[in-house]
UniProtKB/TrEMBL annotation:
Gene3D superfamilies: 3.30.70.270, Acid Proteases, HIV Type 1 Reverse Transcriptase, subunit A, domain 1. The lineage of its organism: Eukaryota, Metazoa, Ecdysozoa, Nematoda, Enoplea. This is Peptidase A2 domain-containing protein. Residues 1-42 are annotated as: Disordered. InterPro entries: DNA/RNA_pol_sf, Peptidase_aspartic_dom_sf, Retrovirus_Pol_polyprotein, Rev_trsase/Diguanyl_cyclase. Keywords: Endonuclease, Hydrolase, Nuclease, Nucleotidyltransferase, Transferase.
Length: 379
């Protein structure tokens, strides 16, 4: 205990020490900033080699004269992380220049990095540009639709417009050099629109941008039903290739209906490549056969089918004719009627036969040997 006597000066306490049961001593710490030891990093700075933290390095904004990069001292250039040529594809190399200093080219920005392990996750689609098929990689993050200079030449090198007012950049902010742009008509499935296509000097993949994706209605379609990431050479390979395991039966059916709408539509088909003609024999005599009776319950269906065929232009009404053949009404699986004319009642015998050798079953089976895809024709 410290006690002050009467009439004496006050006592000043500089330190109080007390012993506890553990034997440890507690001392008042001197908090002077000049006497506090400075903390040092465990490893030297990887930008210059000095013993300080990287965030305090004065070479963070220094331009290296050896590699042309910014952010480190000469002699501390980071090693280039290279991959085998079969697993990488660098589409752009940029070179930094510095006031007459001799520099070497260095990869500073990458448009595309492809490898065997990443290609399986990409989706590609074939779009017709001016009636020529072009394979695009679907890129919803790109605002512009871009093709390479090689693809532009394959399209016939259409005239390009100036793109000085358009600045295209990558995700990292690097500028993409554009050769120009051109207006074109493009289509996919039932969608046919027009828009602007940009041409770059790089040899990277053709990218289908968000504008074209929206106009072609691809946002409403499953990606697996559009096209496989394996990029088959043609649409036949897409349907028949055994590697397309992600394309289910329902998606394949939707794709075929969208790719060939005229063939898969419910409307009546029209042959535009040939014109049929019937040639009568010189001694042929007209044959007129009366109609055959049909059940009264079927009469409304027969009349409705005749009206439908007349509206489609398949048949036309006549008031009089020397030739007549009875109708045969056959019910389909869906309940509708199919009307057929029975020309065996006289017209077939009056026609000049077109002699064509019909193949035998052996010839047919020999021709179909090795086939994998067959179609069923319903007569």
């Amino acid at each position: 205990m410290v006690q002050q006597s009467a009439g004496s000066d006050p006592l000043e306490v500089d330190k109080v020490a007390a012993k506890r049961n553990s034997g440890s001593t507690f001392t008042q710490c001197d908090r002077s900033p000049d006497k506090q030891p400075a903390r040092k990093p465990k490893t030297p700075c990887w930008l210059c080699g000095a013993w300080h933290y990287t965030r305090f390095c004065p070479y963070k904004s220094h331009l290296c004269t050896r590699c042309g990069d910014v952010g480190h001292k000469e002699g501390f250039c980071p090693p280039a992380k290279t991959l085998p040529s079969s697993k990488r594809k660098v589409s752009l190399r940029k070179k930094f220049q510095h006031r007459g200093a001799k520099t070497t080219p260095r990869v500073s920005s990458t448009y595309e990095l492809s490898s065997v392990s990443s290609n399986v996750y990409r989706r590609h689609i074939s779009v017709n540009i001016e009636k020529k098929a072009v394979t695009f990689q679907i890129d919803t993050g790109s605002d512009l639709t871009n093709i390479s200079a090689q693809t532009w030449k394959q399209l016939g090198s259409p005239p390009l417009s100036n793109t000085s007012s358009v600045r295209a950049t990558t995700y990292s902010g690097d500028t993409i050099p554009l050769r120009g742009c051109f207006r074109c008509a493009y289509s996919f499935g039932t969608h046919s629109v027009s828009g602007t296509c940009y041409v770059s000097d790089s040899s990277s993949n053709n990218l289908l941008g968000a504008e074209w994706i929206f106009k072609l209605g691809l946002y409403d379609q499953p990606l697996n039903s559009l096209r496989s990431s394996l990029q088959p050479e043609d649409e036949r390979a897409l349907i028949c290739s055994p590697e397309i395991h992600t394309l289910s039966a329902s998606n394949a059916r939707e794709y075929v209906h969208r790719r060939y709408p005229e063939i898969c539509s419910d409307s009546l088909g029209h042959c535009k490549f040939a014109k049929a003609s019937l040639r009568l024999r010189p001694d042929a005599q007209p044959v007129f056969r009366p109609k055959r009776p049909v059940p009264y319950a079927v009469v409304p269906l027969v009349e409705a089918e005749l009206d439908r065929l007349e509206k489609l232009g398949v048949i036309s009404k006549v008031n009089c004719s020397a030739w007549a053949a009875p109708l045969v009404a056959v019910r389909k699986r869906d309940g509708r009627l199919r009307l057929c004319a029975d020309f065996s009642t006289g017209l077939n015998d009056a026609l000049e036969m077109h002699q064509y050798p019909l193949p035998t079953p052996e010839d047919i089976f020999s021709t179909l040997n090795g086939g994998t895809v067959f179609s069923q024709i319903d007569f």
